[in-house]
């Protein structure tokens, strides 16, 4: 392919496996391929992966040496948990002294219900750490294996401080050819019960994911590709396949993460709600300040230490079928045309709908009746949400979900006649029900993340994005957009993902030494995960309320000449975006400072009260990156532009001026610092000393005359 460097993204879904080829320099999508997922092949989904790689390469004349990045996302771990298709886990709990009793209880997490009637089965043995010998370990493992355990988890109180005993137990299990993992491998946080539970879920996935990892790695080698195969994580990054073998839990929800990761990188959203709408369900996630919202995932209703994208799923989508009763439409979904084994009414020809009549079908035993349309010729189709959206012209021409308008009208006229209303009124009723169900979740997420409803954009992705999002935006008064290449947005997200790693530790009053240690640790970890060290960016966060010290690192697998999908937006356009984000007139919004990637805008407002006698000046601050994404916005915030060499005087004085003193203590302001490509979040710092210790570590390689921006607020 003319020596182009290519990125390949593969998304292994429950029904289809998609692949895209992306130009590594321009990020243009060069090719899109879709084929059924090979669940029933003797090599499993790996067979489909090798087939789709070969198709992409042969159809586009791509040579193995042209491929600089290859990654895949998968729903395999998620599906395994939903279906209860997981390994039985034996837990060797450990602790001693006063902690022995609580450790015995907290390492015994019992069986975990994954879905109705589906359990992750666990067995438990406890050893007092003082009595830990080769004989006691062997005895415990023997008993667990005899009970039916397939994987061993070693979990000891305070193992995050010293994992030696967990490592001994893991080695004893592995020496017998048994998979094993330890609590310290999954999380560095205290909280033995949650750490053990997270390790158990991870362990239950190891055998299946190990098999898939080996097959997919072999498949890539067979294709002659020398680039390291990367796998999508649940937080929107990628990691090496070797890391998947140790921590398969990180691939849980990775299929869902890929869609919003793609939207984030491809669409440059500041604040928004992303909807990945398929045939059966919609996955909803939040983007705020250009970042995807992340939280601790739950399994079977129990908290884990797995940090994943906050994605909420609802059974409303393009293929959702219609329920009727009492002469009106009563519900949309949860069953879809796919589950009923029927085709959509809007994707057939009108010749298949001659003399239409309304029928009813119950897709699964115990289901209510859903509406179908039957022709005199014996054809039967589902009435769907996609049909309703097409009839009401919510789906643009050329969109993936655009259907045959003639057949759509025939089907919905039949339903309207059956209910004593027009086809449009019937379609509108169906759309309104779907919007009401989805908005209940959307409103909760808007509340949870304190989003500004006047600024957010609804973004549609997936094959049915245009079925739901335009209609919902019009009814609820939001802006909206359909993502470019929406049906492939997940696959694009995989193809453009960065390597990511995160470490969390329980640290009370983090010191400069703690910060340097965790920084060195995350660097080592992300390089192990496949990142080129020269590209790695590290962010340190301190959660002082929960005593958590967190390091997040992102990097790429290869040195790049520019950022992914980077584009520069003219300053006048940046100002208009800033004014909209701040809710202020454009003519009162000014560019106050700029440094590296960052542009700081301010708009001042005079608020009057007490019949105009009291006046208060409000300062609205917005910081945008060069691509026009609003990364920070706040009212009653203050800013300072300074050089690095003035950090100890000008910046220190600025910080002092905005510190509140009381008899008990000094409260430093919440602080962000911007320079070059970096946005440094220092809002977790409790003291000036703590703040400066991180700032000095982060800027130690910065030249003295480098420009920096600081924004503070209380």
TrEMBL record:
Cellular component per GO?
A: cytosol
Residues of the Hydantoinase A/oxoprolinase domain: 195-502
One Pfam family hit: Hydantoinase_A
On the tree of life, the source organism's domain of life is: Bacteria
Q: Which residues form the Hydantoinase/oxoprolinase N-terminal domain?
A: 7-176
MF terms from GO for this chain are: 5-oxoprolinase (ATP-hydrolyzing) activity
Gene Ontology biological process terms, A to Z: glutathione metabolic process
Please give the name of this protein.
Answer: Hydantoinase
The organism that produces this protein has a lineage beginning with: Bacteria, Bacillati, Bacillota, Bacilli, Bacillales
């Amino acid at each position: 392919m003319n020596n182009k460097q290519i990125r390949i993204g593969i998304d292994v879904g429950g029904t289809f496996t998609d692949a895209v080829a992306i130009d590594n320099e321009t990020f243009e999508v060069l090719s899109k391929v879709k084929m059924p997922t090979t669940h029933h092949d003797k090599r499993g989904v790996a067979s489909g992966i090798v087939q789709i790689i070969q198709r992409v390469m042969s159809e586009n004349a791509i040579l193995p040496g042209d491929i600089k990045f290859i990654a895949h996302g998968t729903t395999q771990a998620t599906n395994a948990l939903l279906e209860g298709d997981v390994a039985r886990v034996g837990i060797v709990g450990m602790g001693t002294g006063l902690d022995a009793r609580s450790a015995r209880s907290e390492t015994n997490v019992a069986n975990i219900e994954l879905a109705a009637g589906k359990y992750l089965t666990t067995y438990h043995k406890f050893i007092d750490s003082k009595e830990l010998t080769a004989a006691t370990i062997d005895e415990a493992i023997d008993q667990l294996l005899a009970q039916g355990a397939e994987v061993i988890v070693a979990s000891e109180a305070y193992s995050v401080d010293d994992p030696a005993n967990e490592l001994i137990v893991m080695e004893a299990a592995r020496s017998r050819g048994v998979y094993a993992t330890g609590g310290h491998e999954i999380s560095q946080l205290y909280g033995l019960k949650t750490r053990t539970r997270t390790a158990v879920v991870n362990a239950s996935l190891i055998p299946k994911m190990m098999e898939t990892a080996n097959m997919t790695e072999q498949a890539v080698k067979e294709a002659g590709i020398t680039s390291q195969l990367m796998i999508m994580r649940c937080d929107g990054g990628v990691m090496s396949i070797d890391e998947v073998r140790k921590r398969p839990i990180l691939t849980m929800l990775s299929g869902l993460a890929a869609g919003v990761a793609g939207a984030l990188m491809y669409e440059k959203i500041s604040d928004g709600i992303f909807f990945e709408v398929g045939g059966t369900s919609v996955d909803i996630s939040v983007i705020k300040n250009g970042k995807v919202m992340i939280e601790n995932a739950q399994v079977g209703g129990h908290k884990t230490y797995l940090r994943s994208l906050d994605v909420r799923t609802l059974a409303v989508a393009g293929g959702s079928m219609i329920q009727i009763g009492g002469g009106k439409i009563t519900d949309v979904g949860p069953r879809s045309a796919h589950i009923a084994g029927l085709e959509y009414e809007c994707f057939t020809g009108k010749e298949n709908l001659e003399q239409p009549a309304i029928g009813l079908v119950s897709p699964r035993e115990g289901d209510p009746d859903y509406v179908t349309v039957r022709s005199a010729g014996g054809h039967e189709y589902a009435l769907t949400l996609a049909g309703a959206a097409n009839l009401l012209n919510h789906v643009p021409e050329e969109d993936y979900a655009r259907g045959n308008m003639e057949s759509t009208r025939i089907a919905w006229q039949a339903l309207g006649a059956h209910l004593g209303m027009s086809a449009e009124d019937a379609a509108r009723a169906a759309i309104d029900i779907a919007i009401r169900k989805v908005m209940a979740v959307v409103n909760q997420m808007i509340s949870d993340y304190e989003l500004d409803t006047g600024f957010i954009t609804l973004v549609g992705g997936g094959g049915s994005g245009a079925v739901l999002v335009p209609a919902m935006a019009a009814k609820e008064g939001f802006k909206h957009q359909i993502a470019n290449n929406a049906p492939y947005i997940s696959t694009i997200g995989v193809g453009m993902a960065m390597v990511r790693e995160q470490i969390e530790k329980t640290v009370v009053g983090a010191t400069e030494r703690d910060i340097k240690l965790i920084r060195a640790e995350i660097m080592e970890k992300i390089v192990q995960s496949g990142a080129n060290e020269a590209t790695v960016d590290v962010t340190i966060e301190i959660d002082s309320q929960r005593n958590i010290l967190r390091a997040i690192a992102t990097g790429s697998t290869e040195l790049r000449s520019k950022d992914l999908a980077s584009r520069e937006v003219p300053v006048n356009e940046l100002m208009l975006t800033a004014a909209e984000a701040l809710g202020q007139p454009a003519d009162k919004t000014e560019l106050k400072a700029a440094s590296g990637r960052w542009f700081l805008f301010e708009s001042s407002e005079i608020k009057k009260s007490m019949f105009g006698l009291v006046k208060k000046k409000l300062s609205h601050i917005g910081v945008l990156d060069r691509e026009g994404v609003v990364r920070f916005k706040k009212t009653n915030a203050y800013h300072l532009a300074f050089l690095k060499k003035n950090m100890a005087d000008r910046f220190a004085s600025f910080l002092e001026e905005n510190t509140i003193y009381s008899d008990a203590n000094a409260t430093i302001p919440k602080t962000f610092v911007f320079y070059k490509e970096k946005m440094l979040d220092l809002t977790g710092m409790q003291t000036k000393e703590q703040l400066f210790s991180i700032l000095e570590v982060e800027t130690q390689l910065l030249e003295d005359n480098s420009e920096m921006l600081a924004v503070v607020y209380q």
